[in-house]
Write a structure and sequence with these properties.
Elements (H helix, E strand, L loop, with lengths): L1 H6 L4 H24 L4 H13 L3 H9 L9 H7 L8 H10 L6 H19 L3 H35 L6 H55 L1
Helix pairs in contact: 2-8, 2-9, 3-4, 3-6, 3-9, 4-6, 6-7, 6-9, 7-9, 8-9
Length: about 220
């Protein structure tokens, strides 16, 4: 495999870097989204019950708790607890609304919208980079193929100029090496593009949950 990689030429190195960066982003996003996964209905219900009993401080403390990381294995969650964990997006926007519990409806909505403007970019972080990597990987493969074909025909021209016979093996070997980069680019691009779409769907589902929770809280506090 190392010999095949080296025969692909210098363009193989950028393709390899794309695969490494893409894998790092995918792992980071999956761990992050799994950590902040929570039962939004159960959480919101608990906060509302505390507000009904006028336990505003307790409701805010509930929002400040880090998620339990139900989407993660116990070993990964234990490793994450070494770092200072932060609440997820849903508790943060709920907290913004609870802080304005005695304000008019418009003020509550405005506070929640401001918090969402901060939380949504955190959910979408690095997704555009992942999409870029998925798009440029096959282009890099194509570039490697084109440069490989240029070298192949340059060899043919040099042999013809020196009156040396050009064998089919010379052409086949050069073309084979040139096509390695296209294969490598597609091998990287296809799973990265699938992972990108998967992560986009998960992020969209989180945003939808945030909107539902925010609407329920606004209606509850307005009543």
């Amino acid at each position: 495999m190392i010999q095949v990689f080296l025969r692909g030429g210098p363009v193989m190195w950028p393709i390899l870097l794309c695969s490494v960066f893409a894998m790092a982003i995918v792992i980071e996003k999956i761990v992050h989204l799994s950590f902040i996964k929570m039962d939004s209905r159960e959480f919101l219900s608990g906060v509302m019950q505390k507000i009904k009993r006028h336990q505003i401080k307790e409701a805010l403390e509930e929002c400040d708790k880090a998620p339990e990381g139900k989407g993660l294995s116990a070993r990964i969650l234990l490793a994450l607890k070494v770092i200072k964990l932060q609440p997820g997006p849903i508790p943060n926007i709920i907290k913004a609304g609870v802080l304005k519990y005695d304000q008019p409806r418009e003020k509550i909505k405005e506070a929640i919208e401001d918090a969402s403007l901060y939380e949504v970019p955190k959910l979408e972080k690095n997704l555009s980079v992942l999409a870029t990597l998925a798009h440029i990987s096959p282009l890099l493969g194509l570039l490697g193929t084109v440069t490989g074909m240029v070298r192949c025909f340059q060899t043919v021209q040099l042999k013809a100029a020196s009156f040396h016979p050009v064998s089919p093996g010379d052409l086949a070997g050069g073309i084979w090496e040139a096509l390695i980069t296209t294969v490598a680019g597609l091998i990287v691009a296809i799973p990265v593009y699938v992972a990108y779409n998967y992560l986009v769907n998960r992020v969209n589902s989180f945003i939808l949950e945030m909107e539902k929770s925010a609407t329920e809280l606004v209606n509850f506090l307005s009543e």
